[in-house]
């Protein structure tokens, strides 16, 4: 039971339902999850080892804070990786990979229409990773995946806010068009600009969330 509870809490943290620095109300969570305190405590200890939660004696558990400067630095690197991936992916993407990306984009449009932000964001992540994977450069793909995992929680906080949802979807549509045309320079530019716009909004939402916590 504690593993399932840890998974639920992890998702709440990554999706921004529990803000950085927020005190974790154990009694409320026990009632919400309909569990006793023992599995909850074990789940929280697991999240402490993962770095998602902190614990201090007599002060209880809190959601671990996010280092805004680190997130900003990671985004700066991601901008370049997105741009590089665009040039290579335009040349190397297969017909099957392109068809899958087009299918995922249609799913994103449906989720946007239905207001399903979390589902949209999960597909959004998959699209970006698939574009990078389409480069056929495993070093690039692994580095990109590793850095994206570090900003997942920060993006979840922004995703929980209003976010620039419609604009982001339109940018994705343009990215798919450039990819279909195998226009490497256009695709590289669009991916970098999309990454820069996302970073701006994520850092803005993160600053607001931390300031309010």
Write the layout of secondary structure elements.
Elements: H1 2-14, H2 26-33, H3 37-50, E1 53-56, E2 60-63, H4 68-92, H5 95-114, H6 117-133, H7 138-160, H8 165-180, H9 184-212
Antiparallel strand pairs: 1-2
Helix pairs in contact: 1-3, 4-6, 4-7, 4-9, 5-6, 5-8, 6-7, 7-9, 8-9
Cα Rg: 19 Å
The major beta sheet can be summarized as: 2 strands, antiparallel
- In angstroms, what separates the terminal alpha carbons? 30 Å
Shape: elongated
* Helix and strand sequence: HHHEEHHHHHH
Question: DSSP strand (E) fraction?
Answer: under 5%
How many helices? The count is 9
Report helical residue fraction.
over 70%
Tally the beta strands. Answer: 2
Unreliable segments (pLDDT under 50, ≥5 consecutive)?
none
Order of neighbouring strands in the sheet with most strands: 1-2
Return the average pLDDT rounded to an integer. 91
- Summing up helix and strand content along with how strands pair, one would put the structural category as mainly alpha
Notable traits:
single chain; about 210 residues; mainly alpha; two-stranded antiparallel sheet; about 75% helix
Short description:
With 213 residues, the chain is mainly α. 77% of the residues lie in helices and 4% in strands.
Q: What would your notes on this structure say?
A:
- 77% of the residues lie in helices and 4% in strands.
- 29% of the residues are buried.
- With 213 residues, the chain is mainly α.
- The protein has a two-stranded antiparallel sheet.
